[in-house]
Amino acid sequence: MRILGGKWTASILWHLKDGPVRFNELSRMIPGASKKMITERLRQLEAQGLVSRQVLDTAPVSVQYEVTHLGCSALGFLDQLRTWTDSLPGAED
Predict the structure, then answer these.
(1) What is the pLDDT of residue 47?
(2) Count of domains observed in the chain
(3) CB distance 30 to 65 below 8 Å
(4) What is the pLDDT, as a whole number, of residue 43?
(5) Phi, then psi, of 30 in degrees rounded to 5
(6) Is there a contact between 4 and 81 (Cβ–Cβ < 8 Å)?
């Protein structure tokens, strides 16, 4: 929970689950989070080995992120947590 419990961390991992995503696209997927906060969380996730960062050879330079093998193991846990919360009383609201 210490790793995944940070605000926006689970959301970032979840949005990266389907493949590489460029930073600006990711920031549009998470409208409530500032770019600064997303950057901080991505750096933490990269340092923990859950996300990989790739600098693309484009003009201007773009960066994309994707979930690592270790990060994929966390996605299973997050999916179980989502299923559990969906089953709680009042979750249909």
Answers:
(1) 94
(2) 1
(3) no
(4) 95
(5) -125, 75
(6) no
